[in-house]
Write a structure and sequence with these properties.
The structure is a homodimer. The first copy, chain A, has a single domain, classed as Tetracycline Repressor, domain 2 (Orthogonal Bundle). Chain A has 11 helices and no strands. By secondary structure, the first copy, chain A, is mainly alpha-helical. Chains A and B meet through helix 2, helix 9, helix 10 and helix 11 of A and helix 2, helix 9, helix 10 and helix 11 of B.
Chain lengths: 210, 210
């Protein structure tokens, strides 16, 4: 999975070797932080415990992240970048809107349940530091607007049922975003299978009957 | 809304006057607790602050609830009872499964965004007291099993597309359960309108095309 993540980042953001190293270190810290957040809750977790869990000195941890809020931001921002890349692809691709949204929905679910960011998606708190919070909110708005535009396109092309895109977008994202609430990484279903079934449901909610 | 809640409770549980009084007091406390939880987070809230917000002495608050965990349980248990009533109705009613699930989905969303329980649905923590947590989990399982059974019935009757009910149930509940995350009580859309659009999306995800 780490390899896939790096592949993704390298391709989309043209990272040099030093940046890649940094990103790897940040992902390791995120993995350790996830454990601490799970055990103590986000509010109860301290930078000292996160450093210990990551096997780092506090000084080294602070070199990468100034606060646990920044760790959370790193996680959410990365996930958002991946879903925005998928949105961009869905908008540029030709062909049935339903197919494009199927690919987008699958990527979205995989971002939430796969890899370190996925396991961290459970926190469900937003960064509180001014600037970080606004940056996350702005990207989320961009993503939601893009989904609405795709739904509106599907309606115009008579692929999708007539509905208000803003509500359909909320239902669509709800079906996807709920996945980390119930998905058991050690359960019988693979991430791919879960993503496919949930994406099929989410796209079916948009389709025209007959 | 309080009137509707009481109407519901009276009808379904045959409360006497004393029980009704108690329930009203509990709902008032829940309203006050909601404010405190919002301001301080569930973990940071104290019974003392909740008593103050409700305009009660600590002793009176403890007469109704022994802990904030019990307040949370009261809220979740009540909401679950209402959705289980709706499920029961959907299973007993005759006619198209899609119509019955539409009514169920609307009730579910209204439970989450309407009234005091609705505003409290945002907490997204489960009671930690043994017994309380298990009771909530058991009711949730019952509800999920019932939804799966209805979906399976819709598939057998060829109203619903062929799918695995356990995944469709997750998508269906995800679309509904996500509503409190984005719904703005002071926004332009009424609770009824929101519930209808989201329920339409959620049921559309199950329907057969053509």
């Amino acid at each position: 999975m780490d390899q896939d993540l790096n592949k993704h980042s390298n391709e989309t953001r043209g990272m040099n070797r030093r940046e890649r190293k940094r990103e790897e270190a940040c992902l390791d810290i995120l993995g350790a932080a996830t454990q601490v957040f799970r055990e103590r809750g986000f509010a109860g977790a301290g930078m000292r415990e996160i450093a210990a869990a990551a096997g780092l000195s506090a000084a080294t941890l602070y070199y990468y992240f100034h606060s646990k809020d920044e760790i959370l931001y790193f996680c959410q921002d990365r996930t958002l970048d991946r879903t925005l890349d998928a949105l961009q692809l869905a908008r540029k691709t030709r062909g049935p809107v339903a197919e494009r949204m199927m690919t987008l929905a699958m990527t979205h679910v995989l971002c939430l349940i796969e890899g370190v960011e996925g396991t961290a998606a459970h926190f469900e708190v937003d960064p509180v530091t001014p600037g970080l919070r606004e940056a996350i909110t702005a990207k989320r708005e961009r993503y939601k607007d893009g989904i609405c535009a795709l739904i509106a396109l599907g309606i115009r092309r008579k692929e999708f049922r007539r509905c208000k895109p803003k509500f359909a977008m909320r239902g669509f994202l709800g079906a996807l975003n709920w996945t980390p609430h119930w998905y058991q990484p050690d359960g019988p279903d693979s991430v791919q299978e879960v993503a496919r079934h949930i994406a099929e449901y989410a796209v079916a909610g948009l389709l025209k009957r007959g």
